[in-house]
Amino acid sequence: MDAGLWTHLYSKGRFLGFKRGQRAQHENTALIQLENVNSKEETTYYEGKRVAYLFRAPTAKKGSNIRCMWGRITRPHGNSGVVRAKFRHNLPPSAMGSTVRVMMYPSNI
Fold first, then answer.
1. 7 — pLDDT class (breaks 50, 70, 90)
2. List of residues 6+ apart from 40 with CB closer than 8 A
């Protein structure tokens, strides 16, 4: 393997906001735009994959300030590569626009 080449077990996504209607917002479902995914057909590979939102906390626990919130991709949302994800604990509104990691497991191939 080339020394300058990095490989990851995840791809990137962006937390856009929460599922919503005209008047009501449903905080238990997050909308995530996947990197390099532009159609509903391309999202089928990602269904069931795990999603991690990493953030820095003000206080250290177990020697680290970095914390993680886990979720899972449930289904597509619309026709442009956006997916819905449910997290164990709802994402905070301050996370809107931030990056999430979409893990390449569990595999459904």
1. confident
2. 76, 78, 79, 80, 81
